[in-house]
Amino acid sequence: MNDDDWHKLLRQGAAFLGLHISSAQLLCFHRHMSEMLYWNRKFNLTAITRPEDIAIKHFLDAIAPIDRIPSDGRILDVGTGAGFPGIPIKILRPWDPMTLIDSSRKKINFIRHLIRQLDLKQVDARQMRIEAFVSGLSPPAHFEIIVSRAVTNVVGLTRLVMPLLRRGAALWLWKGPDIEEELRALDEVPEVRQGILRVHVHPYQLPIVDVGRNLINVEFNLSGLD
User: Fold this and answer.
1) What is the pLDDT of residues 29-65, one digit of tens each?
2) Domain CATH for 140
3) For residue 169, what pLDDT band results from cuts at 50, 70 and 90?
4) Residue 103 is part of which domain span?
5) β-strand partners of 99
6) What is the tally of structural domains in the chain?
7) 28 in any annotated domain
8) Quick one: CA torsion of 165, 75, 217, 154, rounded to 10 degrees?
9) pLDDT digits (tens, 9 = 90+) for 95-104
């Protein structure tokens, strides 16, 4: 697939989602892919290596539910890996400050390199586990938006970021089509059962391949304390 076809694929997919990608943003997406594939020769950043699959399963998946997520907030990307969903969101919303964390040094080194290559502003990349990150935050530090596409244990991550949720953050999780078991597990979390946490599910379709996905939103419910 040549560059023009890749750009066309991404634009068509975004249009299907009701999104517009500018030429400058397309170039950033393409640079992200190119750098990721180059680094992937030495480091295991992604198992998805076909350009068309990267366009759909990485970039379009990262931005597909973006209109559901409030703008103008500080974003924390947990387990960012090769930069998803954080970097594509940052490209589309350059005004939102963002912190990306991952426990892998090689992945954070790649993210820092990518931030320089794309000249992204107000972005911080840290090699940390989420447990250490949350416990090390001083009380005034908080985020409005927490995103994660890598999490396998929804309940575990929800519990780990509970202090941030209590400070007003909302958790947004990218998941596949089969989430019934995870939702049942979430229903057993005491804060969910008590109505202190609210859980919402927003289904969406990946364009071109027509694959169903889900965005899970978990947020603190002040009315649940009444």
Assistant:
1) 999 999 999 999 999 899 999 999 999 999 999 999 9
2) 3.40.50.150
3) very high
4) 61-225
5) 76, 124
6) 1
7) no
8) -80
9) 999 999 999 9
